[in-house]
Automatic annotation (TrEMBL):
A molecular function (GO) term: phosphorelay sensor kinase activity
Catalytic activity from the UniProt record: ATP + protein L-histidine = ADP + protein N-phospho-L-histidine
Protein's UniProt keywords contain Nucleotide-binding: yes
Residue ranges of coiled coil: 200-227
Electron transport as UniProt keyword: no
Residues of the Histidine kinase/HSP90-like ATPase domain: 335-426
One Gene Ontology term, aspect cellular component: membrane
Stated name of the protein: histidine kinase
Source organism (scientific name): Kitasatospora cineracea
InterPro entries the UniProt entry points to: HATPase_C_sf, HATPase_dom, Sensor_HK_TwoCompSys, Sig_transdc_His_kin_sub3_dim/P
Higher taxonomy: Bacteria, Bacillati, Actinomycetota, Actinomycetes, Kitasatosporales
Length: 435
């Protein structure tokens, strides 16, 4: 145990010293100037304007102060003022490097001005202190906390050294520099932490919004699949019944045909069983099976009457081509009903009291739906309602994509909104159309 404790006690101070030096020499990789992520250009220009103002004021006054009030040689005074003020533009992108230049110049200036003027602050002339504190601001908003602590420790040790060695000339400016630099570093570090927290929160909100949109899309696709199960199951049931009854309905069938019809019926029943298992996977744990038949175009008048009870007067216009078309495929009829339902639900949500028009036409092997609403009267406030069963435009796009159709939405010239969906009637899938 003693052997293990010895190396730790020996390496502890060495490790601390290395970490301390590393904090003073290794800057953070972020070299962006302060406020660089602001949206407004004038906000991004504020740090540059402040630095220009500080350099323009501290450079000439620093030279004059060191020469006239401290009696420093003009060349040395110019060099010190240029280093201390000229490092501020560098501090916009590399504040730790700027501090590494300024800190030795402060020490050299303290030695050069010692004993020069008893009525002037020492070892921190006013111009030096102002420039150093401004540098602390730029350092605090860009570097990590351990670097700020190390910088303050060096400042404190330098001020303590000046008080110890030159106690007779000590006037309290070192205490002021130590206290103000610590306060500036602490406030700047707090503001930087708050800004980082806000950025992380914004990034997390963006990720959450993306995940929410993805989850909404998946839920809508599962809901559409559950609805279409009834449509497909109906067709499979018809196939099963026809295949099972074919040997009794058709006389004189050869044994091979009877066996073939039996295999078709068995395959259809197997497909129905697989679809039921698939539906159990798609159905959420808290949802229940829908016993009602799936709606179609014939149910649109009832839908418009229900929307009218919510304060939206809707009119239905059916083209002659639809009447001559006859029954449409069940998947198309269901999708058409849901698209109209979601479009009218959006009118109730976002334009309560408006008038809506629903148009249905058939041409060139496709069913065209148009839902258009006028702007709401007066300043009607948008409301939330559960009248729709899907996810708005997301559900419409998925249903249209399922049938290889097209969807066009957007505002109208008079301030209303329009939804136009074209649904092919031939049952061609997107892949088949592409091919």
């Amino acid at each position: 145990m003693r052997t293990a404790a010895g190396p730790r006690s020996t390496l502890g101070p060495v490790t601390l010293w290395k970490d301390f030096l590393r904090a003073l020499t290794e800057p953070l990789g972020d070299h962006r100037p302060p406020l660089s992520t602001a949206r407004r250009p004038w906000v991004r220009a504020v740090p540059y304007a402040l630095v220009l103002l500080m350099v323009g004021s501290l450079l000439p006054t620093g030279i004059v102060t060191l020469i006239q009030f401290y009696g420093v040689d003009p060349s040395l005074a110019t060099a010190l003022a240029v280093v201390q003020a000229g490092a501020l533009p560098l501090a916009l992108t590399r504040p730790l490097t700027a501090w590494q230049l300024v800190a030795p110049s402060v020490l050299v200036g303290a030695v050069a001005t010692h004993g020069a003027a008893a009525d002037q602050p020492w070892p921190w002339p006013t111009t030096t202190l102002l420039g150093y504190l401004f540098l602390m601001v730029l350092l605090a908003v860009r570097e990590r906390g351990r670097t700020l602590l190390a910088v303050w420790v060096v400042t404190f040790l330098g001020c303590s050294l000046s008080w110890t060695v030159f106690n007779e000339d000590f006037d309290g400016s070192s205490v002021l520099a130590t206290a103000l630099s610590g306060v500036v570093l602490l406030l700047g570090w707090s503001l930087r932490g708050r800004g980082e927290a806000k950025r992380l929160l914004a990034a997390q909100e963006q990720i959450s919004e993306t995940e929410r949109a993805r989850r909404t899309l998946l839920e809508e696709r599962a809901r559409i699949a559950r609805e279409l199960h009834d449509v497909v199951a109906h067709h499979m049931s018809v196939i099963t019944v026809q295949a099972d009854s074919a040997p009794y309905r058709l006389e004189g069938l050869p044994p091979a045909a009877v066996e073939e019809f039996g295999q078709i019926a068995a395959a259809a029943r197997g497909s129905l069983a697989e679809m039921r298992r698939l539906l159990g996977v798609l159905r959420a744990a808290e949802s229940t099976a829908d016993k009602a038949p799936q709606p179609g175009l014939d149910d649109l008048p009832k839908l418009l009457a229900t929307v009218g009870q919510a304060g939206v007067r809707a009119e239905l216009a059916v083209g002659d081509g639809v009447s001559a078309l006859g029954p449409v495929p069940e998947a198309v009829g269901l999708s058409a009903y849901r698209i109209v339902q979601e479009a009218l639900a959006n009118v109730v949500r976002h334009a309560p009291g408006a008038t809506a028009e629903v148009g249905i036409t058939a041409a060139d092997g496709a069913l065209t739906l148009t839902v258009r609403n006028d702007p709401p009267p007066g300043r009607a406030r948008a409301v939330e309602t559960s009248g729709g069963t899907g996810q708005g435009l997301v559900g419409m796009r998925e249903r249209v994509r399922l049938l290889a159709g097209t969807l066009d939405t957007g505002p109208t010239a008079d301030g209303g909104y329009r939804v136009t969906a074209v649904l092919p009637l031939d049952g061609t899938s997107p892949g088949e159309k592409t091919a």
